[in-house]
Amino acid sequence: MKYTFDPLRGSIFSVFLYYSSLTVIGMLAVSSASAIDAAFLGNMDGEVALATVTLTLPFVIFVGGVAFMMGIGGSVSCGKYLGAGDVQTASAIFTKTLLATLLFAVGVCFTATIGVDLLVVLLGASPAIAPSVRTYTSILTLFIPFSVTGICLSYFVRVDGRPLLAAVAMTVGAIVNISLDWLFVVKLHWGIQGAAFATGFSQITLLCMLFSHFLQKKGKLRFNMRGGSWKEIIRAAYNGFSEFANEISAGFLTFLFNRIMIRRLGVAGVAAYTIVNYILYLGSMACYGISDAIQPIISKNFGAGKAKRIKGFLWIAGGTVTFLGILIVSILLLMPNSMIKLFTNSEAEITICIARDFIAHFWPAFLLIGINIVFSSYFTAMQKPVHSAFIAISRSLVAPATLLYILPLFLGNKGIYMAVPLAELATFILALALFMPNSPLKLIRSDQIYKKLGEKRELFPQKGVPTSESRFS
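Structure tokens predicted for Multidrug export protein MepA:
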């Protein structure tokens, strides 16, 4: 029983099930809270409230993107050191990553608060929606330090062996969000302000619960600035850049969709896209939960040189996200109207009609989204940030943005709806091409050769080049 859930020694299936189930529960709790948030707003305040949330998304995604970059990049690097048994360096990377993330969050909070009017303009809000966007953004900005630090901490809690705490914290945060949404939006009729405060208070709850892990000292990581140079933090951020690129690309793509939908179909079009986007969000978050779960597992096995275990985790993750994709597609095709009506009232007939047409052409995307996310996470965990970034940027920006401008010229509005499914197909082909020469065994052998070359340089330094030993000889 001692090693049942140990990433290095436990049964592959048991470890995967333990980590992934907990992470998926946490991710689904967060995404469900966001979806219920939108459902309350759509039913209580109508299309303008839904459009406000969508127009604000690019800013929220940008801020969250940096948090994901630092949290995932830092925790993967941390996991590799933990797998190799170097706890002190792992703790230093954790501490410095958290400090850098917090400084960024405070800076963005201060800047966005001062320049909120400019931010509203940059987000593309029309005069009719601008006041609502300004109110919503102003409140969310105040909670940025809590949300960003919480996201970062969640990854280190998982890599430190407590995925259950991370899942519980995310679930409790979601419950707080939903409860306050009901109180502020439904009962007190605070509208978009209530939704923003509900989100902010839930983020404070999440942060406090995660922080308790390090105060109680139940894991291996400690707050320690000694060891692990700042250059390693930069490298860790670079390794997590694919996650940042993925988030930023998704934010920019949302911005493009907002522009196109409001130009071609008005506020109803943006509201319809909001509905489809939340359905996509729910499905994607389950896949992200699985990919986030395997990252610390793979990074630890990478540090320990266990290629066969990494391959096993990849097969199980790939099969699981494929099953989830089929399940989501089945629900969308069998009951599209039921899904749509969760986010709006029966009076928004145009919005419902557009959303139904959107789903009819969009559903194939769910069959490939999960596989592409797993491929991207694999490369991040194996410290191949360029490969991971190629996949992330391809599926979140380059392919869909290109198709978004080309397809409508020939297919009209259907071209808008089909851009993302075709982009996922193109990305899947790219991911396979990148994986073939970068299997777990090949990357581990390459890493071992690199380490041996480094050891030889230390033992036999080149003439005139000082090393840690030759300086004192």
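DSSP finds 17 helices and no strands in the chain.
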